[in-house]
From TrEMBL:
SUPFAM superfamilies: GHMP Kinase, C-terminal domain (SSF55060), Ribosomal protein S5 domain 2-like (SSF54211). This is Galactokinase. It comes from Parabacteroides absconsus. The gene is galK. Pfam families: GalKase_gal_bdg (PF10509), GHMP_kinases_C (PF08544), GHMP_kinases_N (PF00288). The keyword rRNA-binding does not apply. Residues 283-359 form the GHMP kinase C-terminal domain. PANTHER family: GALACTOKINASE-RELATED, MEVALONATE KINASE/GALACTOKINASE. Residues 89-176 form the GHMP kinase N-terminal domain. The keyword Nucleus does not apply. Keywords: ATP-binding, Carbohydrate metabolism, Galactose metabolism, Kinase, Nucleotide-binding, Transferase. Belongs to the GHMP kinase family. GalK subfamily. Residues 7-55 form the Galactokinase N-terminal domain.
Amino acid sequence: MKEKISKKFEELFNTTGAFYASPGRINLIGEHTDYNGGFVFPGAIDKGMIAEIKPNGTGKVRAFSIDLNDYAEFGLTEEDAPKASWARYIFGVCREIIKRGGNIQGFDTTFAGDVPLGAGMSSSAALESTYAFALNEIFELNIDKFELAKIGQATEHNYCGVNCGIMDQFASVFGKKGHLIRLDCRSLEYKYFPFDPEAAGYKLVLLDSVVKHELASSAYNKRRQSCENVVAAIKRNHPEVEFLRDATMEMLNEVKADVSAEDYMRAEYVIEEIQRVLDVCDALEKGDYETVGEKMYGTHYGMSKLYEVSCEELDFLNDIAKECGVTGSRVMGGGFGGCTINLVKEDKYDAFVAKAFAEYTKKFGHEPKLYNVVISDGARRLA
């Protein structure tokens, strides 16, 4: 990939620049916990974005996307916003740095990525983090890593129309090989936990259903509303409760008669999921991957039956994982399509993949996609 980027850079700009990279991410456990003040548990992966960059001494950015075979040129003031959506990510990062007082000049860049698009591994956060990290270093801005992640998040909010949380950008900037990061979505405190399934004889595999159901945004808002309804009910007896993260199952049961059955189910899932993240962290500190797997299945059950954000295709892949003796499997991401993430013993891997492909294709008329992932480092300069 680097060669391809370098060749195009030289062809377009007749010079050479510095290389920077940032990864996509997976989230092992902790789904729909972020807006409830809970924990998420992501890790950076060995797939991401790579860019070659060099200041060009002008007030203009000249950028080329190799994957889209598209060129864009734009200035650095608000009126210069480019039309192409991919270019708006780079422009947004520049603007967010400038808003924070960073002095950026024009630069030339070419970039490419190997994060699968639409598979829930956050290719956009990888792109934002690559440029935030690179521009910070190239223009010697001394912005700390937390702020770099926030610059990526603000780019999504202000220039790309996506009101995302901080997890994706955080994982892309802070990723560390062989470790997952437990991020407290309320305080933004974080802690690294060892995660090296290969050393313990496991593989981490994503199976992409290659479907995306259209319910996602309205269903997401509805579930968020359910959580807020329950917090409001609990708060009457327990004023200290601000998020479901502060609530216990006892508190939830106290208000069972005051909330709808649907709201109760949604809250039950979230309270249990927040606890599962903590249980998985404890298990990893002991190297106990069996417990990790068991909790992943618990998450899938909760997302399917209580939060109701799974779909037939994802439930089918989860059932096959169970039949094949896969250690852990669950839907990854917001739901209604996308991937399952699977923790598979090496000696069961071939049989699981073969069965999943054969049975899924027979049932749904198209193959799933397979991605093996390795937990890797975050944003960095490449030698």
